[in-house]
Amino acid sequence: MTADLSNLMPEIRSRFAHVESCPFQGPRVFFENAGGALTLNSVVETSTKFAAIPDNQGRDNPASKALVDIINRAKADMAVFFNAPQGRFFVGESGTELSFRLIRTAIMGSATGGSVIGSSIEHPASRSAALHWAEVAGKPYIDVPHDDATGQVTAETYAAKMTPDVRVATILHTSPVTGIGNDVAAISAAIRAVSPEALIFVDGIQHASHGRIDIASYDIDGYVVSPYKVFSRHGYGIAWASDRLTSLSIETLRNSPAGNWEMGTRDTGAYATFSDVVAYFDWLGGQVSDADTPRGRIEAAGAAIHAHEKTLTDAMLHGVGNLQGLAELQGVTILGGIENKDREGLVCFALDHVPAADIVAKLNDQGIRTHMRKADHYSGNVLNPLGIEAAVRVSLCHYNSLDEVRSLLAAMKGIAG
After folding, report:
1. Where does the chain hold its CATH 3.90.1150.10 domain(s)?
2. In terms of CB atoms within 10 Å, which of 152, 218, 222, 252 comes out highest?
């Protein structure tokens, strides 16, 4: 067995829709994965199948019972994928909606008084929710500053701001702007060292597609992902809630079963498509390891994904063959720093002599899909301290190839001048 994904690339790419071409644009390289990853063909098939089924859960008929079985199987698959043997999973409108809901429940259900803590690197999905509900609950918000140079926040910076009366804490697993990950387990431990009973929420939306999620090791109470960013489809989000969080006063129908987070009839197809995602990670892990359990294969897949993506981002930064890397371009700023061991499949950069919008447009003209991050309510927290109005985000996943990186670097040679 080998953990080198380059030899598996044809097989891997064959499992995804629109790998090499866009139905609207034609041939293209897809480096916009942080905005939404490619979709598994199995997910497309499953979505079509369940969109045609008229039955709902909770009825006394064979179809309804089958739907309930599929949902239960998906929840079991999620427990393995996230390594969360305790707590419960449920789906909602989106990752953002679920983030708001879990954070609202934690803040409004926590003990009177106290404060809420979070960091300046967070995406608005958790940041806005924490600020809003802290204000409603009359709990001061403690702002932990991230490091502008690395785009990260550390356990030490959380510890410096912690107080014993912190009731709720939020953590960003990986930044969708810089692509730099944060040490969730260490930050969680720093929080609990000062406030052991704090309710801890983690935004895992950007991190999920890169594998290596291990909820059991984090000592947290909530974790949220957006499946369209991890090879599934739009239209739903997935949340995990600890038993402690679920025991609070959650919004639910009167006299319904205790601890029921789900509101209204769920889309069985949403659950089923995440089973497809888990099955894919299981398959990939079997190709790169001799692991004999689903969790072991999922962990092996995550390790192989990380290694392959590091090879690609290193090539983007430092060049390959006779092609100059992005970090070697004149007047370049690499967000998060050039040498950052916690980078996850993303390089975000700006040139001082070519506007980001022009770079994105010129790359698109050459069939290379990237994205511009502006200093707005999504990315201003990262870009404004650096004095950058806009940057180019090149985000990849493990199905991207070194040849695609070469295409990007060749195009940038002409664009940068």
Report:
1. 5-39+295-416
2. 222
CB-based contact 158:190 (threshold 8 Å)? yes
For 317-354, b where at least 16 C-beta lie within 10 A, e where not — what string? bebbeebbbbbebeebbbbbbbebebbbbbbbbbbeeb
Which residue matches tokens 């991207």? 400
Query: If you ran DSSP here, which 8-state letter would residue 59 be given?
Result: S
SS3 at position 107: helix
Cβ-in-10-Å burial (0-12, 13-18, 19+) of 3 comes to middle
Q: Where in the chain is the domain with CATH 3.40.640.10?
A: 45-278
- Tell me, which fold does domain 5-39+295-416 have in CATH? Aspartate Aminotransferase, domain 1 (3.90.1150)
Q: For 306-343, what is each residue's pLDDT tens digit?
A: 999 999 999 999 999 999 999 999 999 999 999 999 99
pLDDT band at 255 (very low <50, low <70, confident <90, very high): confident
Q: How far apart are CA 255 and CA 268, in angstroms?
A: 23
Determine the Cα–Cα distance for residues 207 and 342; give it in Å rounded to an integer: 11
Name the CATH code of domain 45-278 (choices 3.40.640.10, 3.40.50.1000, 3.40.50.80, 3.20.20.140).
Answer: 3.40.640.10
386: nearest Cα among 374, 398, 401, 370: 374
Beta strands in 304-412 (DSSP E): 332-334, 346-351, 368-369, 371-374, 390-395
Compute the average pLDDT of residues 350-371. 98
Structure tokens at 82: 């996230």
